[in-house]
User: Fold Cell envelope integrity protein CreD from Stenotrophomonas koreensis.
Amino acid sequence: MESLRLFGRIAVAGVVVVVLMVALLLVRSLVSERAQFRDQAVARVAASRAGEQLLTGPLRVIPWTEQQLRVDEQGVQRMRTVHGHELQMPQLLQVDGRLLPEQRRVGMFKVPVYTWRGKLAARFAAFEPAGVPGRVYGKPYLVMGIADVRGLVGTPVLQLDGRRVLLQAGTQGLHDSIGGVHVPLLPDDAGRLPASALQLELVLDGTRSLALLPVADDNRVQLASSWPHPSFGGAFAPARREVGEGGFSASWAVSSLASKAQDQLQQAIAQGQGMHGEQIQVSLVDPVDVYTQALRAAKYGVLFIVLTFVGFGIYDLVKGLNLHPLQYLLVGLALVMFFLLLLSLSEQLPFVLAYLVASAACIALQAWYLSGVLRSWPRALGFAAMLTALYAALYGLLVSEQNALLLGSLLLFAVLAAVMGLTRRLDWRQLGRSHE
Assistant:
């Protein structure tokens, strides 16, 4: 009978834990919902200004048409007109520029945006299109791909072989794959494109990230900004980078031997698809994404509640307090409330300060409540000290992302060792009889 009574108390505690798990799931759902609102704020800024930018090119393009004999579904041979493009990538592409960052506020959300003052220099070798029988070549042109042309500020300055030329809107026949601007080219009498060099200066607005497609045989990129928290994404890490409180500078050196960008671009244009291949990318990120941190904290909430209940339950059994399940539930709800407070405060305060305020409020509430439940302020303060240690451990898990698994494993091992040490001489049968 005593064992059944003890088992019943454990089962009731398990039900309470399940109820608290449901409450934690609701908090995690709320965190995800707030993160979606943040993403909508980013989309609103991108819709009114310019989105994430991707530069492709410059490229030299020669359109062509060709009559090909094809067999249709009925097996009848028919002549069909096929359209395509000959693409020439630059031998050398040099990109240099500085991102001038700022933050746009949408409600309570801050969205990082930038203005890029960039310079591009490219060199092309002489190019002769393939001599395919029946193929007719059209007028060649130069394309500079820009993901969102709304970000162009003023008129870009393009110098082609030392003379200034006027850019035109659109990318001609490449519009299905690349947005941007173009300029007509003049082939020689034999239809060849001579060797050429160009310089382009432009001012480009964007939101959060700037990326470049390394389409040249030799790509050399240098970017700098006063933003102190860059994220270097894409397929290529910088060959050199310096990041500090005053901003960052980074450079890339990418060869076509190490990149599939040229082939990926050829395939995307041939299939009329957008370009999503290997890129050089830098993003202006928030060093502490409050929603990522809050979601990670909520994921540790299960561990947090279980550890608290283990300590609370052991104390209850050893001291013979015979606490009611509702008291366990109220203690657990105060723990869940911490994660809700952390989310709401971190939207208004720096994450560290929000964590301190939320944890201090919940620890004070628990101490005040337990002083009555445990009928002793010293006992309540001892339990509050344990909670303080747990909150400190949770913060350590949050800030040590690379070592979170190791720290969590060590914490669980330490707690298990402490419980086993405290109860190794405990007579559970006698404990059940003493609570009759």
In short: Residues 334 and 365 are 8 Å apart (CA to CA). The chain has two domains: 2-38+291-434, 53-287. Residues 53-287 form a domain with the Immunoglobulin-like fold (CATH 2.60.40).
